[in-house]
Sequence to fold (990 residues):
Amino acid sequence: MPPTLHSLRYSLRRRFAWLAAAALSFCLFSPSQAVFAQGQGTAFGTLGGVEPTGQYPPQTYYLALGVYRGGDLPSALNAFEAALRGSRRNINGRMIDAIPALAMMGECHWHLGNVPAAREISDQVYDIATRYQGWLSRVDWNSTVQMGVQRTKPNWLWPDAASVNLIATSDRMMFLSGNRVTEQSLVAGGAIEELNVRSMDIIEIMRGIATASYRRRIILGPLSEEDSMAVALVSATKFPANLNIPVARSLIGSMRTAGYFSEHDEKSVVAEAARSSTPGGVHPLSPIAMLCQASTLAASANPDDVIPIAANVANAAAVLEQPEWIGEAMQLAAGCTSPARAATVAQMATVAAGSLSRQSRLGTLHCLIAAADAAVTAGDPASASGLLGQAQALSSRRDVIQPRLEAYGAYVLARIAAANGATMGSGKVNDLDKALSSIEGFALRHADRKRSLVSMPRIYQLGLVTQMAGSNVGASTGSKWLKMYCDEPSIDVWRRDPVDAIAGLILDRAPAHAMRINLAAASGYAEDLLQASDAMLAARFVDRQPIGGRILQARAIAGGDDQLLAPEIAELRKAAGPLMAELRGAAINRAEPDAAVAQMMEAKATLLAINRTSLPQVAVPTLDPKLPIAKLGPRTAMLTYTHVGNRLYATLSADGKVVMWNVAAGNRIPGDISRLMMSIGVGKTRGKRLPEDDEWKTIAVSIRQKLFPEGNQITAERFDELIIVPDGPLWYLPFELLPIGEPDSPLISEKIAIRYAPTPGIAVKPTAMPATSRVVGITTDQFFAPRDVDLNASIVDSVVDVIKEPLRLPDQLNVPTGLVGDRVGHLVVASARPANLKNPLATGLATYDQSSPYGTVEGWLRFPVGSPASVVLFGLRTSIDIGQIGSGDELFTTLVGLHVAGARSVLLSRWAVGGESSAMLLREFLQELPFMGMNESWRRATTLIRQRELDPTAEPLLMQSEHDRQGITGDQPLFWSGYLVSSPPHPTAE
Fold:
């Protein structure tokens, strides 16, 4: 629609007013004018400083407020800087009249996405307020209220705001500045200011202190607890002695409420807010005091209590013409509302936005986004889309620059898209992908003129924690903070600012985990090191999932078995609302998986993950915090290794205690592993595969001596079972090949049962219940006889014949492996399948479903929950298969992914073998797998294969020159040692 003549005139008038204000600022505070102002102080008044004429704060500050509320942040920042230059200062720095301009500069930096600059500004405000400690006692509080004056309320107010009584506070109060000049003061020297009486806007100065206090707490979060600067500020702003003027005490109390909020004193915030409230009406500090109270209650168990307080904040801010706090209050209300009250919050924010439309673009934009946010919570995505569309139209204006609000709008857009059925990883870029990309861009890649900025409090706080942990902070304190910021953000962070919570999830927290491990190792507490390693390994998998693993956690909580999850998870499901109830119902009432139903449930899980819901990390089991190795069986040892930088830490858990050590020669172990693999024939492209002698045992002894502790030998006299948690290149090392003693001594695996686990938590906690079905689903390729189709088919038949309840895939069940569900108790893939080394989650399990999104490890993690209890990837090819030592990530990720997807037991190969030897292993293994479990049936199969003589011509790995070699048996490590089993004990053995 073309603009009308009236609208064009209105727009031109507004723009002319802003240009005039900017020009006025430049003229008033040009360098020459500043010099002129210096000469107007008293003889002792501004030694080495500036004494402005006119108002305190200057008039340009109030003009800058109008620009700020108009939504143009860069222009507002320039205007506040001009106002700051016009403030009073002396040799000791700026006077208290600079506080309002500084506080609003901090607000501009905050909304522009520059958290460090906003923090620096708040420090300056605190410094001024504490430097002039006691200044409140020099104010003439008798003029606080303009007696007999009744302020005219704005005519644009909505009914609830119009009904609020406005106390006619004074915008000019007398302030006693300086001191009487005496002989003693002259002798003392320093900055000397003779006694003066000045008219100042004391209430606006106090409002600036409260504003800076509120924002400082939002920026520092939990780190603000007992912050020394905040404590000093509260101490410096005590009530003057014998002050009995109620409104004056309310003003000071409201400022102190924000101060208590700044130092994370929750009880004092609530108490002081209650004491400082004025039943007769509101004053300029009422909105921020109530907002501090509401933000404090955001962490409570009854967040709906925030809504009436937020409404009061909005009403008070409207009648006081402080629109910036209206949007802030509406966002907090939208974050704390339950679905039952969300429609009311949406209506409240919509009404506020409509009333503010001609008064403040900043307030209007914020309220529209908050209204859309609440509408999604109320289950009305259509209305939310309309409201967000209005917000986007307003945000697209050239004179509206609000990066932080745009990120909040992107969060709401993501919720709307998920509510409309969008999911991640669908193959097509949708609104959900765009919105999350926008959030990620603001949180991690925000910049101003190519200068990177820290835009989110959570990221800024983690940076401070890592600085503290790297300095002189105690190990226990540093570890506590690091653990907090490596975990899921608390629910109050989600309610206050969901973009900040998401930023804390998608940030690379690996350095923080590594620092936590180094602190634990330096402290000498082996249990702390074990738990820190467990947390890092779990996070290594979870953090690479979308939204920091939130969707993964939603699936795990909804579909997890009550016998395996902690008891409090049942309560969490109830508190999570109707979405979780739907997902839980679908997980319990499992029908035959359908791709369309799975897509719908995946969208609901995505919406639940984006919502402000507590979703703790349960997908990857972790050790109990108090008794980490209590579930470790008798005569069982757990050996863990953790790579951090160039260090390799190890722990041995057994007999109720944990010991740790630093593997001294850890940097040489990858080369040793490579030599060992080449010596047994893995990855060789030239010459004969099989070794002519036992040189490989000498290399294996050298590796064992580096890896195992001297004082804690792993022997059959002490242990029956050894659980190994490798890391890095150690994933390619078959620990079964390490001799107990000298090269001619028995191998460890001949005396002690060995199994592997990707994390310590998975080592001691099953990820799924035992199989209820004995059906073995099997899919094969040209694996056993690559050059002879008929022979390969014959060998496959011989393998299938030993299975009591076989099911051939896809012949008898043509569905992707990720949708097989529990119709198959045990899934076997006998196929040479290469792992995806660049993106292990994209590794395909079978050949027949490689074009399906449900045929990859990532696809298995999607809904529907449930998978075969046992998964056997008999021909997985890793980097060692081509003679390269990688990071081990393809094995780690595949193993964890299958466990998290619902597999209780997993068998993987490090290199593909094929041939008759693999057929022998499978025959012996599969005939007992449904009955004995994976551990026992695999040990039995390997024992038998090592005793069998092999036909060299039936082994595709062997070279032509080896086909005439006599006496080849399955005892050659090439044929049996490349497999690893990750499985808890069979139920009969538990």
